[in-house]
Amino acid sequence: DIQMTQSPSSVSASVGDRVTITCRASQGIRNYLAWYQQKPGRVPKLLIHGASNLQSGVPSRFSGSGSGTDFTLTITSLQPEDVATYYCQDYNIGPLTFGGGTKVEMK
Amino acid sequence: EVRLAQSGAEVKKPGESLKISCQASGYNFAYDWIGWVRQMPGKGLEWVAIIYPGDSEVRYNPSFQGQVTISADTSISTAFLEWSSLKASDTAMYYCTRREDGQPFDAWGQGTMVIVSS
């Protein structure tokens, strides 16, 4: 089975900072990579699909890149409302595996 | 608008059975995948199982195979997740979620909390 490894597991940043989260697949998954945001006590929300395509309504400060095994989620200017845990997910052919999550906190 | 309305929280004892539900609206239920994601307290997301209601094709996360059963009733646009014998380790929030073929989960239910305790 494909393993999805996220790093870091947590990050603390200030308002306006650039935050980068990485996700590595144990095998190539082309661009079948999604990113989800889960705010504390809330339901997960799809942010990005196809590795780099923003879901409708997602602020443009979020962006995704990568293909194959290495992917990145970037928040260009962190806002207080971005405090959340972010998960990557492989939605290629097999099990729909999630990464372990990255908790983004405000300094 | 796609909407997934889940059944309410459950408190059960070990060994008991349980069936939770997710009623879908706003799209053609038979022709998109619908599934379940588990989140144990303070932990991450784990995909449990998905079903294609149109032909009842099912796929299970190997970690959950044999532990739960997913089903769907197209006449009432509702998906189910069932346990025959609950364990304390089944205590978690369970989210219903939809995916179009070849796409990620783009709609989520509000979650059903399942607590298994003696």
Short summary:
The complex is a heterodimer of chains A (107) and B (118). Chain A is an all-beta fold and 107 residues long. Chain A has strands spanning 4-7, 10-13, 19-25, 33-38, 45-49, 53-54, 62-67, 70-75, 84-90, 102-106.
Q: Globular, elongated, flat, extended or rod-shaped: what is the shape of chain B?
A: globular
**Would you list the SSEs of chain A in sequence order as H and E?**
EEEEEEEEEE
Overall residue-averaged pLDDT value of chain B: 97
Count of helical regions of chain B: 0
Poorly predicted sequence stretches spanning 5 or more consecutive residues of chain A: none
Helix content of chain A: under 10%
Total number of beta strands of chain B: 11
Determine Rg of chain A (CA atoms, Å). Answer: 13 Å
Descriptive notes:
The complex is a heterodimer of chains A (about 110) and B (about 120). Chain A has about 110 residues and is mostly beta strands. Helix content of chain A is about 0%, strand content about 50%. In chain A, the strands form 2 sheets. A 6-stranded mixed sheet of chain A has the order 2-10-9-4-5-6, with no helix packed on it. In chain A, strands 1-3-8-7 form a 4-stranded antiparallel sheet, with no helix packed on it. With about 120 residues, chain B is an all-beta fold. Helix content of chain B is about 0%, strand content about 55%. Chain B is built from no helices and 11 strands. In chain B, the strands form 2 sheets. In chain B, strands 2, 4, 5, 6, 9, 10 and 11 form a 7-stranded mixed sheet that branches. In chain B, strands 1-3-8-7 form a 4-stranded antiparallel sheet, with no helix packed on it. In chain B, a hairpin with a 5-residue loop joins β9 (about 90-100) and β10 (about 105-110). The N and C termini of chain B lie far apart (about 40 Å). The mean pLDDT of chain B is about 95. Classes of the chains: A mainly beta (about 110), B mainly beta (about 120). At the A-B interface, β4, β5 and β9 of A face β5 and β10 of B.
